[in-house]
Amino acid sequence: MTRPCGLCVALDTADPGTAEGWAGQVAPHAALLKVGLELFSADGAAAVRSIARHRPVFLDLKLHDIPNTVAGAVRTLTPLRPAWLTIHAAGGPAMIAAAREAAEKAGGADRIRLLAVTVLTSIDAAILAETGVSGGPMQQVLRLARLAVAAGADGLVCSPREVAPLRDALGEGPALVVPGVRPAGSAADDQARTATPEEMAAAGADFVVVGRPITRAADPAAAAAAIAAALRPRTLAPGVTT
Ligand code: C5P
User: Which residues of 87-105 are buried (b: 16+ CB within 10 A; e: fewer)?
Assistant: First the structure.
């Protein structure tokens, strides 16, 4: 089965003007534009509104609080119309279900889609053990992913090495969104484990998230276009390669 895989460009800056400039340059090649904690902390709702004029927004706030508070945040964010919003799976089923219910009530058919974050890639087995979780990151990722999808998450943010196991475990339904993606030959920056856009599309990702290889390129539009082109064969009918 073919599964389209789109490019999400991470607009990681505290300067709204810089983000707006990047958005204008990369929009023709991006399926989504990611507003993260840095830009949201600097410019809040205005940043989401401004970036959403270019392409649908992936709002990466990683919400994690009691169900009532997360539901209130989802309701409040709905008029900004982000396409996707991240929440922490570790918040538990009641929090995820409350977020889903709030999204449906406030947004109807055009509601915010929820992406659950399982284990941050900065957390390794030793840190997990310190927090009382045994069994290692992959086991915990699968446990939290199943819990999140059962409670109402529309998809998951996951690392490159988790895409294939999650697709196997969860089937075709949940969206898988993958940061840490680097075109062949580009710098890893501080990403410990990277994969190429082509590898992630083949493994079953729905969106790859790429930031610095695009935003720090001399020509961000050309860098985004090259990555989008690498993903494109995935969207064609079987046997069509142009
Ligand atoms: O610049 P770069 O391509 O590394 O940016 C990746 C984006 O994905 C950043 O916005 C980063 O916060 C986010 N991210 C990540 N790794 C995760 C989760 C999110 O790099 N595990």
Answer: bbbbbbeebbbbbbebbee
Residue from 172, 227, 169, 175 nearest 196 by CA:
227
Give the angle subtended at the CA of 147 by the CAs of 143 and 148, to the nearest 5°. 115
User: Nearest residue CA, atom 2 of ligand 1?
Assistant: 211
Record the pTM.
Answer: 0.94
Among 36, 8, 4, residue whose Cα is nearest residue 232:
4
Give dist(CA 74, CA 232) in Å, integer.
33
Which residues line the pocket of ligand 1, CB cutoff 6 A? 10, 12, 34, 36, 120-121, 157, 159, 179-180, 189, 191, 209-212
| CATH architecture under which domain 6-231 falls | Alpha-Beta Barrel (3.20)
| CA-closest candidate to residue 19, choices 60, 50, 64 | 50
How many angstroms separate the CA atoms of 220 and 238, rounded?
31
Over its length of 242 residues, how does the chain's per-residue pLDDT go in tens digits? 568 999 999 999 999 999 999 999 999 999 999 999 999 999 999 999 999 999 999 999 999 999 999 999 999 999 999 999 999 999 999 999 999 999 999 999 999 999 999 999 889 999 999 999 999 899 999 999 999 999 999 999 999 999 999 999 999 999 999 999 999 889 988 888 889 999 999 999 999 999 999 999 999 999 999 999 999 754 445 555 44
Cβ–Cβ under 8 Å, residues 237 and 206 = no
